[in-house]
Specification:
single chain; 420 residues; alpha/beta; UDP-N-acetylmuramoyl-L-alanine:D-glutamate ligase; Protein-Tyrosine Phosphatase, Chain A; 8-stranded mixed beta sheet; 37% helix; Mur-like_cat_sf
């Protein structure tokens, strides 16, 4: 196999990000058909929601892996390497395996003029089929109803929550966004959700067999400081006690929802407990050693994410800490700053080098008027300004987190522009 040609295929794929998001299922269905319908080789679970869908998906996939079956996990975006999006049995697929499959997908994708995320979704299905995956947890990309992952027919659907984000595409109200996310539900099939109960009628109209947090699902959470949470999860006919390393009350809620989903999939208590404990979700409230102290990485890229981060820092007794912040230009930076400023001792504003969507850090500065602010051009410069020892936090765009993380761990980032 020509490594240069395969790398060229990855450059081709990343270039397709510039064509933007084109909601709809016609192209991805046609692409899957040309690839031999690989999505039919395994059972799929769709996980959607405004926030928390990634950690919920990671928890559920870990439980499936702990059960001993060959399970897959499809997530987006990746932090550092494209192959992070595809894991089997808890392990990231080798980059060369992923790129070789992409080379085979490319002609069919070009024939149907598939978008970046449609290609990535079909590629995931092909990889999982060829790896002999029995069940795959598929994180929804954007919305639900017209997202490429919705071309699959899920055995179970999960909707974590609904909040305002991507309003230019999904709608300007919680109700409009809920309608879009509810599109991943299937009539008569099991589903779990933690959405605000006022939005439930918009989900229930689809006729799914729905369990709801605060109704069929009860989650009791005991904080274990930086070790995560001890959870008691009660569902119809069963109660389980598990531990999760996920931080934050939202982490506990997401883990509890994953437990309920695992029960609906018929997993044993032992598999649920072991998987919950083994969950690892990089870049989301992830604490890494740094210069004699710790750096907490979190993709708090929208107002609700920033609020959850600030709440977590208070509950952990962190006090005011230095923050590195960078967000995408289409986010509500004023609302993000309003949540983060009260927990910041200083703010270092920067941007992801490889993300054309990143906001100019200088334009963010006025939103942090009550905190000392410094503006730097790139993540490496931001890291250099952090004081040694103690706790610092880097948050905002996952593209920023994806560039900071290898700098902390001593790795390398891909050199492609990041849009999706």
């Amino acid at each position: 196999m020509d490594d240069g040609a395969v790398t060229g295929d990855l450059a081709w794929l990343f270039a397709r990000q510039r064509f933007g998001v084109h909601p709809g299922l016609t192209r991805v269905r046609s692409l899957l058909g040309r690839l031999g319908e690989p999505q039919n080789a395994f059972e799929s679970i769709l996980v959607g929601g405004t926030n928390g869908k990634g950690s919920t998906a990671a928890s559920l996939a870990a439980m499936l892996t702990a059960s001993g079956e060959q399970s897959g996990l499809f997530t987006s975006p990746h932090l550092t390497r494209f192959s992070e999006r595809f894991t089997v049995g808890g392990r990231e697929l080798p980059q060369q395996t992923v790129l070789a499959a992409l080379r085979r997908v490319r002609p069919a994708a070009e024939a149907v003029e598939a978008s970046f995320f449609e290609i990535v979704t079909a590629l995931g299905c092909l990889l999982f089929a060829e790896a002999g995956v029995r069940r795959a947890v598929m994180e929804v990309g954007l919305g639900g109803r017209l997202d490429a992952t919705n071309a699959l027919e899920p055995a179970l659907s999960v909707i974590t929550n609904v909040d305002l984000d991507h309003t230019d595409i999904l709608g300007a109200t919680p109700e409009a966004i809920a309608r879009e996310k509810a599109g991943i539900l299937r009539h008569g099939r099991p589903a779990v959700t933690a959405v605000d109960h006022r939005l439930l009628p918009l989900l229930e109209v689809h006729g799914a067999d729905l369990w709801v947090t605060g109704r069929e699902i009860e989650v009791r959470a005991l904080p274990l400081a930086w070790e995560g949470w001890a959870l008691g999860v009660r569902v119809p006919g069963l109660e389980l006690e598990v531990r999760t390393p996920l931080l934050g009350r939202h982490g506990a809620a997401n883990a509890g929802l994953a437990v309920a989903a695992a029960v609906r999939l018929g997993l044993t208590r032992e598999a649920v407990r072991a998987g919950a404990q083994a969950t690892h979700w990089p870049g989301r409230l992830e604490r890494l050693p740094w210069r004699g102290g710790h750096l907490l990485l979190d993709g708090a890229h929208n107002p609700s994410g920033a609020e959850a981060l600030a709440t977590t820092l208070r509950e952990l007794g962190a006090g005011r800490v230095p923050l590195i912040v960078g967000v995408a230009a289409d986010k509500d930076a004023a609302a993000v700053a309003a949540h983060l400023s009260p927990v910041a001792s200083e703010v270092i504003l920067t941007r992801a080098r490889l993300s054309p969507r990143a906001a100019d850090p200088g334009h963010l500065a006025p939103h942090f008027a009550d905190v000392p602010v410094r503006v730097v051009p790139d993540p490496a410069a931001a890291l250099a300004l952090l004081p040694a020892g103690g706790l610092a936090v880097a948050c905002g765009s996952l593209y920023l987190i994806g560039e900071l993380r290898p700098l902390v761990l001593g790795g390398e980032s891909e050199a492609y522009e990041r849009w999706q």
